[in-house]
Design a protein that fits this description.
Shape: globular
Structural class: mainly alpha
Radius of gyration: 18 Å
Distance between the termini: 20 Å
Number of strands: 0
Largest sheet: none
Order of helices and strands: HHHHHHHHHH
Strand content: under 5%
Number of helices: 10
Helix content: over 70%
Length: about 240
């Protein structure tokens, strides 16, 4: 079933959309320092951090549509009954979808990093950036994917996702436990440690990833609540 779903994602041009928005993130990472800081040249390490900033600050806008489209198209095409014929429940459906998006995005990010590395004649940050960028985008897949299970309309799913994104930026600014609403936001400590890693070569300690791990755990719990809460309606929406 995973193979069939992967073929469907290719047929539906999902990976093309992922490649497009990923390329847009890399282009924005290049363009924003020139337009906002009026620099004349950009170094490899600074460009990698600038692109990380784009992924963390604009990722919901870039990847929200692709994720919503990937899920909601099954409602539009009335495919949920097809999955039930293969004894696939909503949880397995969600995991298959998220896994496909995850692996396709790894390919897109790796391709972008290889091109950038070739342009700068350095692959020093290939593996760290592959990890950082992928983890950030994976967060969007989890959130937007769960939201898309609730709403049959693509526009509604995307709209609620954007509302969540804006709300999380406001809530995380209060600090404390609120920081878990957007663990990769610039207001959280991990962002400053990543900046020091690229600018000063200071390694990010494993302990600094505690908050992201907790944040991911909370997102998964919320996603599971949504998944099991929509198990019956999920079939009906696709009929």
């Amino acid at each position: 079933m995973f193979y069939l779903e992967f073929k469907r994602s290719i047929h539906n041009k999902t990976i093309i959309y992922l490649m497009t928005v990923t390329a847009a993130a890399f282009v924005m990472g290049w363009a924003l320092p020139f337009s906002l800081e009026h620099i004349t040249t950009i170094k490899y390490d600074y460009y990698m951090f600038s692109t990380y900033t784009v992924f963390t600050q604009f990722g919901f806008l870039l990847f929200g549509f692709v994720t919503s489209y990937f899920f909601n198209k099954d409602y539009k095409d009335r495919n949920t009954i097809f999955y039930t014929c293969f004894k696939i429940n909503v949880l397995k459906y969600y995991l298959i979808k998220i896994t496909i998006l995850f692996f396709e995005e790894i390919i897109c990010i790796a391709g972008g990093l290889l091109i950038v590395g070739a342009l700068f004649s350095s692959f020093k940050y290939f593996l760290p950036c592959l990890l950082l960028y992928t983890v950030v985008v994976f967060q969007y897949f989890i959130v937007v994917g769960a939201i898309s299970l609730i709403f049959k309309s693509l526009l509604m799913s995307l709209g609620i996702s954007i509302i969540y994104w804006i709300s999380s930026i406001v809530i995380v600014s209060f600090g404390g436990i609120c920081k878990y609403f957007a663990v990769f936001d610039a207001s959280n400590s991990l962002y400053s440690y990543v900046e020091k890693y690229f600018s000063q070569g200071i390694s990010v300690q494993a302990a600094e990833f505690t908050d992201p791990v907790i944040g991911f755990g909370l997102l998964i719990v919320v996603a599971l609540i949504i998944i099991f809460g929509t198990s019956k309606k999920w079939i009906i929406k696709g009929l």
